[in-house]
Design brief:
Elements (H helix, E strand, L loop, with lengths): L1 E7 L2 H11 L3 H4 L3 E7 L4 H17 L6 E10 L10 E9 L3 E4 L2 E4 L13 E2 L2 E3 L5 H7 L3 E7 L7 H11 L3 E3 L2 H10 L4 E10 L10 H24 L1
Parallel strand pairs: 1-2, 1-3, 3-11, 4-9, 9-10
Antiparallel strand pairs: 3-10, 4-8, 4-11, 5-6, 7-8
């Protein structure tokens, strides 16, 4: 039996995944254990809850075959990742781990406090651990992106430009690097879908579109569950 862990920071994000699962539940429930969980907002909460859940599963002899994080996010690159689009995050950076200097952020890797290739980092980034071949083939449908995980929403053009220059990423979120770190350490395949609800740096909430992003997230997860159903039929 395949064991799948699906997580989100907030209830509305998790509800999108649950709604996508419902049409496939009848077929999947007999061949897969699908657990849904809120991991909470931010890296601290996500690290704790993901690690706890993984260890609880291990203790019960029911290790997860794949972990999936779904959620909304901001876009640094609104042309390639417009509001309502879904990004598959290939690598994540921790966007506030370092020193705040007059010339901008200096990461712990910049200052050699940490080796940029100390496991699970590679060149200062946390890469995705690949899943089985069927899942990887399915994921080719989605546009790949790198993400910066920060504990503060970027609210100014200057900070936005600093993050782009520093990391060259397309997406900003608040939990993704925690998933990458924990699952790499525990050797669990994983991926995360991020649906764009806003342009990074835009504070006017009237210009955000959460409902559109949540609908896109639901459709992406419905495609995933249908893929799992097709495997079962083979």
């Amino acid at each position: 039996m395949k064991r799948i862990l699906i997580m989100a920071a907030e209830q509305e994000e998790l509800d999108a995944a649950l709604a996508a699962y419902k049409p496939c539940e009848g077929l999947l429930q007999n061949a897969a254990q699908v657990d849904f969980m809120l991991c909470g907002i931010g890296m601290a909460s996500a690290c704790y809850t993901i690690t706890r859940k993984i260890y609880e599963a291990k203790a019960a002899g029911k290790c997860y075959d794949i972990a999936i994080l779904v959620g909304l996010a901001g876009s640094y690159d609104i042309e390639d990742f417009p509001i309502g689009s879904v990004a598959l995050i290939e690598k994540a950076y921790i966007g506030d781990l370092g020193f705040d200097t007059p010339s901008g952020l200096k990461t712990l890797f910049d200052t050699k406090v940490l080796d940029s290739n100390i496991f699970p980092f590679k060149d200062g980034a946390l890469y995705r651990k690949k899943a089985d071949s069927a899942t990887e083939e399915f994921l080719k449908r989605f546009r790949r992106a790198s993400a910066v995980t920060r504990q503060t929403f970027t609210g100014s053009q200057a900070k936005k430009e600093e993050m782009i220059e520093k990391f060259g990423s397309e997406i900003e979120d608040m939990e993704g690097a925690a998933l990458h770190f924990v699952c790499q350490m525990e050797e669990i395949p994983f991926f995360q879908f991020r649906a764009v609800s806003n342009e990074v740096g835009v504070q006017d909430r009237d210009k955000w579109n959460g409902p559109l992003a949540l609908d896109a997230l639901k459709r992406a997860m419905l495609e995933y569950f249908r893929m799992e159903c097709e495997i079962l039929k083979q």
